[in-house]
Amino acid sequence: MVFAAALTDPGRKRALNEDAVNQLVTSYGGIFIVADGMGGHRTGEIASQMAVSQIVEVLKRSEPSPQGLLEAYEAANEAIYLAGQKPESRGMGTTCTALWLDLPYALIAHVGDSRAYLLRDGELLQLTQDHSWVADRVRQGLLTEDEARNHRWRNVITNALGSFPNARVDLVGLKVRPGDVFLLCSDGLSGVLEDKVLAEMILTNPPEPAVAKLIKLANDWGGPDNISAVVVTIGSQVAESPKPYALPLDANNGQPVHLQSGTDPEVLTTQIAEPEKKPTFWQRWGSVILLLLWFGLLGFVLFNQLGSGATP
């Protein structure tokens, strides 16, 4: 059983809402997305809407799997990138965080600084890592979380759909537990409200009032950016269902695991390893040849020494 709500708002300081959201509950779980567009004029709004519509359409036609989620992001990236080649659309792109519930699994794909959170047993866990300049500096130990929150470059994104010919996507997988609550949001929410406030709102409210209260609180705190939130609550029972794919062991135990993108879906189920390569001639015989040369050189030196020491 899945209960969900999605809401977006332009905020107090922006005339145009460049965010886009979507929620679609299905028989197997559902599809939930938040996107935050960027670019001049109306291109950010177009980019976020393109991402959401493209991904939903691909996922609706696909069997749930990590590879299917990647392919949906790749299709959206290609469409936005091509649209951004027009002179009037230069610089268009969008963040995008999607939750594909395939109960009892949750698959999450992520690009940019929109976020996915998991509330479990009263504890809020950020599942995604921001692709931003300040987040990189925090991970390097050069900025604190508080410094990053107020830094003048906090809105500088290092990865977005449509910015590059090929999508660079983070994947997260985990096994869902009864009572889990997922929050997807744009930085207009996470950049204004602290994690403890986010946790309290989604812990004490069903999805629909939760998203409304979250957006109201962000606006009460100034609403400096567009604000979007999607809350997805898992019911008291989660049916076990065999899947044609598997997740790493930790994910099956309910612990989030970051999967590596750009790989064969079968490889996603295990620790990523370098593909086996046939050894070259020098890799196979190089050490033998060097050893023979060394013995040859040693023999040559000894022969000369013996020859020079002989009595005529």
From TrEMBL:
The chain crosses the membrane at residues 285-303. Keywords: Hydrolase, Membrane, Transmembrane, Transmembrane helix. It comes from the Bacteria. One of its GO terms (molecular function) is hydrolase activity. Residues 3-234 form the PPM-type phosphatase domain. PANTHER family: PROTEIN PHOSPHATASE. This is PPM-type phosphatase domain-containing protein.
